[in-house]
Amino acid sequence: MQHDFILLDRSGSMESLWKEAINSINGYVRKLAEDNVDTGVTLATFDKDGEVFKFEVIRDRIIPSTWRAVTDREITPRGMTPLNDATGRIVSLAESGNYAKVAIIIMTDGHENASKELTVKQAKWALDRCRQKNWQVIFLGANFDNAEQARAYGNAPRATAQVAAACLDSATTALAGLRAAYAVSDSAMGFTEEEKKRLSNPNPPEDHGSVIRKNL
Asked: CA dist 146 to 38, 50, 111, 142, 155, Å?
């Protein structure tokens, strides 16, 4: 059994790129369906609304071909960024299933600033358990240089990318192509340095598709 878990930062600062973020998630699942990847997809959002930690499962164990597109009318940005706590929750969901292969994609536009349950080190330990099983852990920084963040959580540079808002859909579609390879051959998901350079720079727009073409 395989599964994909997408953890989406719902903090207020995501508002300026929210449509792009939502579209990129729908694009990821659409590509999984096109490639007939035998997996389920769970999407969870996180934020801190006032003093309340919110971890909400928006789509739960959905077969890609039956995915109902998420819209910005369904979920909107609002709170702070309890990334440690949310990481612990998404890992718990993954570990509660009997999965042989898992991809965890974490998309955020900023640093941890509101967790109460876990420290960065504890969140890293949770992700370390995933990586030890050869589960794929990908950090996407939405308009955000997330190299330092991902390194603190133990992530490899290849599995970490800063992505301009205009390139989010290209990044996740490329990842879905790599996910198809991981499904059948255990190939690691990630980006080359040249690909990351293209994804972090929205100009020129005609170059965005090259990331996808190179990985399909």
From this structure: 30, 25, 8, 8, 11
